[in-house]
Amino acid sequence: MAETQGVQSLDRAFEILEHLCAVPEGLAIRDLVAQTKLNKSTIHRMLQAMMQRGYVRQEPVTGRYYMTTKLCTLSSMIVDGLDLVRVARHPMEQLSQQLQETVHLVIREDTDIVYVHKVEAVSHSVRMASQIGMHRPLYCTASGKAMLSYMTEEQVASIWQRSNVQAYTAATIVSLPELQQDLAECRKRRYALDLEENEPGVRCMATAIHDHMGKVCGALSVSVPQQHPLFHDMEQLTQPLLQAGSTIAGMMGYFGSM
After folding, report:
1. CA 252, CA 70: separation in Å to the nearest integer?
2. d(CA 167, CA 151)
3. Per-residue model confidence as pLDDT tens digits over 206-235
4. What phi and psi values does residue 141 have, to the nearest 5 degrees?
5. Enclosing H/E stretch for 71
6. H or E element that contains 111
7. Distance CA 212, CA 200 (A)
8. pLDDT tens for residues 227-258?
9. Which end of the chain is more exposed for a tag (fewer CB within 10 A), N or C?
10. Distance (Å, rounded) from C-alpha 56 to C-alpha 21?
11. How far apart are CA 233 and CA 231, in angstroms?
């Protein structure tokens, strides 16, 4: 019964959003009541929830409700992510073949990274736990730290405060000053390291990827299992990784210095 009510509420919320999207000049609650046939209290409750999440705003003088551009932001994130995957596929395959290691592509979603593409190493039987669509925190992954390294200290602190900070392994960074120091090192060398901070027995190196606007749109990483000789000598990954990241950024329209 509760599940049915939840689906019904979600359907009503989408119906309200669709009506608001169709009228740029905004709608009053009485207009929404007439168009949706929902009662006033239900519509008011849903509008308040949408306002809290930033999807709707209310004009204080007229009382009309308007859609914000947040949906546009979400849709552009999806499109950008799909474009990034498309252009990154071939360079990722080449990098994986060159290094004989697993290569990941991620994008950022608020305080997390999201795996959007993966090329598994075929030279050994070790399989990474990562899966397409999986979320991991920014602060304890090489890819996440590569992206964080291009943010201001204030932005990093905000993300840290909103993250569920915990030690996934004995090596996980769990203090903001330590993370800030790590990010300072990332900026100097242009890549980030995850030395078993996210997954025991796995080390990663990552570099951020910029788009045509110069903004960080994702990150490229190489993962090395403990059984591999490169596990303790990851410097050999540096130039191939940075070159692949530069290639992908160039294909995204970025030609500045990474």
Report:
1. 23
2. 23
3. 999 999 889 999 999 999 888 777 767 788
4. -125, 145
5. helix 70-99
6. none
7. 36
8. 777 767 788 899 999 999 999 999 998 877 65
9. N
10. 10
11. 6
Reading the block at residue 64, the tokens are 């009309």
- Residue 221's region, left for phi above 0, alpha for psi from -120 to 50, else beta, is beta
Burial of 213 (0-12, 13-18, 19+ CB in 10 A): exposed
CA quadruple 15, 20, 22, 23: dihedral positive or negative?
positive
How many angstroms separate the Cα of 45 from the Cα of each of 39, 48, 51, 255? 10, 5, 10, 48
Alpha-carbon dihedral of residues 244, 241, 239, 246, nearest 10 degrees?
Answer: 30
The distance in angstroms from the start CA to the end CA of the chain is 54
User: Hey, what are 93's tokens?
Assistant: 């395959």
Are 159 and 147 within 8 A, CB to CB? Answer: no
**pLDDT tens digit string along 150-194?**
999 999 999 999 999 999 999 999 999 999 999 999 999 999 999
Note the residue count of the chain.
258
Instruction: State the greatest distance between any 2 C-alpha atoms of the chain, in Å, as a whole number.
Output: 69
- Cα Rg, the chain, nearest whole Å: 22
How far apart (Å, rounded) are the C-alpha atoms in residues 202 and 50?
A: 41
